Amino acid sequence: MESIIPIGYWIFFIITIVGTFVGLYKLFEKAGYAGWKALVPVYNVWICTKITGKGLKWFILLMIPVLNVVVWLLMANELSKVFGKDGFWAYVGSMLVPYFYFPKLAFDKDVKYIGPHESPKKSTGREWADALAFAVVAATLIRTFFFEAYTIPTTSMESTLKAGDFLFVSKFHYGARFPITPLAFPFAHHTMPVIKTKAYSDAIQLPYMRFPGIEKIHRNSSVVYNFPEGDTVYLPNQQNSYYSLLMNDAEMMRAYDKKNNNTEKPFSYYYNQMRSRYEASGELAYRPVDKRDNYIKRCVGLPGDSLAVVDGILYVNGKKAFVAEHQQKSYDVKFKENVNVTNAGNVLLDLSLNPMDFQDTVMMGKNIVITANMNINNAATLEKNPSVESVSLNHYDRLRYGYIGLFPHNPKGMPNSVDDFSQIWIPKKGATIAITPQNYYNYQRIIEVYEHNTVTKDNRGNIFMDGKPLTQYTFKQNYYWMMGDNRHRSYDSRYWGYVPEDHIVGKPVLVWFSWNKNLPLLKRIGSIRLDRMFNFYKRSWGI
Description:
Elements: H1 7-30, H2 43-52, H3 55-61, H4 67-81, H5 88-96, H6 98-107, H7 124-145, E1 147-151, E2 165-170, E3 222-226, E4 232-234, H8 242-261, H9 267-281, E5 284-286, E6 294-301, E7 306-310, E8 313-316, E9 319-320, E10 328-335, H10 341-349, E11 358-364, E12 367-375, H11 376-383, E13 388-393, H12 402-405, E14 421-425, E15 432-434, H13 440-450, E16 455-457, E17 463-465, E18 468-469, E19 472-474, E20 479-483, H14 493-496, E21 499-500, E22 504-514, H15 521-524, E23 535-536
C-alpha cells in the first residue's frame, strides 16, 4: 500500500518539525542550557528531563515505543509549567500544537524559566478539569494515529473473528490517516450516543492524506476499513446500503408495473423515482470517508489482481485462493425423524456454532432441517452424529440473489451470485484501461464517486467525462476486494464492489476481550472466551 502525501502536507510536516525545534532551542537557552543540545536526538530528551526535574525514570519511559507518545504529551506540558504557563490553554498548546506554542514561549520576553516547583494547590474542580482535558487530548491523539478499539458486531468473519470479540486495531501499520473531518466530538464516530445526533462538523474537510505505514496490505490480511457505500445513509435503515435499498425498491416497483399494469419502463426510470422519494423523506445522512461505518473483512484481492468465484470456490489470478482455517459456509442439516427442534438446536450449539448463523428451520416430511453456517470440520462432525441423517452444502445461485443485489448491479450484464461471480479486475493506481459500455458498470462508482469525476451519457449510450468522450481511464488510487470468512453470511465486495485505498483504517492486532454478545447481559459473564483473549494477530486472521 502506497503512501499518498500531498505536497501541502510535506510543507506542514516541515513546519511542525522546524517550529518545535526552534522553540526548544530558545527554551533550552532560557533554562541555562546550550541551544544546540535541543537538536541532538535522545540527548535532547535527557535535557528535557533535567529542565523539568523529572529525572531518569521519565527518560526511560520516553525511550519505550508507543508509551513514549503518551509520556511526551506529559513532558510537553511539564515544559510549559517550568516556564510559568499552566492551565487549560497551556495543555492545548503544548500537547496539540507545540510547533506554534513553544516558539511563542521562547520569543516572549516576559516568559522566564522558573524551574521545577511545587504547583499551587488547585481546587478539586480545577484538578478534575485538568485531568479530563489531558485525558481527552491524549486519548484522541492515540485513537487517531496509533490504536483504536473495535467490536466485532456480526458473524461475517466467523469463526476467524467472532461476534463479541473486542479488538485493538493499529492505525500505523498501514499508515495513519489525517482526520478528514477534524471538528468532531471526542470518542464518538459519526453519531452521538443517547441523543443520536451528528457527532462531527463537516464545515472543515481536509484532503485525504496518510503517513507512510510500516507494512503493506498483503493478500488475505484482515483489514478494517470504512464502508464504501456509506457516503449516503437512510437513517431508519442504517444496517443496509442506501444504494441497495434504492435498487431493490426500484426492482419491486418495476415488477409491480409489469404484473399489475402490464407496462414496464427502463430500470433507470424506477431507480430515479425511488431516489426522489428517499431524498424527499428528509431521512438521508451524508457522511465523509472517515465517518462511514467501520467494517472488517479479509482482503482477498490486491490492486492489479483478477478475481472470480466458481461454484463457491474463489480464484485469484487463475489459482485457487487461500482458505481460512475456520472459513464457514451454509449447510442444510437434516435430522432423523425422532429428533425434535430443541434437541436439533442443541446438537448444533454443542459445536459452539453461533445462533446468529441459524438461518432457517423447516419440516421436510417428518424430518427437521436446519440451515446453518459452519466450517468443513463442523460438517464432518455432524455427519457422524447419530441424530443427523444428512449434511449438504448449499449453493447460492443467481435465483436467490440475481444482478440487482450484487455488484456491479448491471441489468444488462451477466447476473452474478454469491457462489458464482464473473471475473473482475481490481484497479491499480496509475493503470489505464479501455472503457466500454460493457465494462463501465464495473468502474462507474470509482470514476464518479471515489475519484470525483463528472460523467454524463447521451441518448445513444455514449459516455462522456468532463464533456469529452470517455474511451479510457487512468486510476488515481489503489483498490481492494474484501470478503468475509463466513462466505454465505457476509455483506462484502460481492454486494458493493471495490474498497478504495483512502477508506483503509488499519490492521487488527490483538483480541483483548471476548464474550457471547447475543446473551442477556447477566449471562454474558459466564460466556467469556478466555481462550481468545490476548491473542495477537496470527496466520488464521491473515498472512
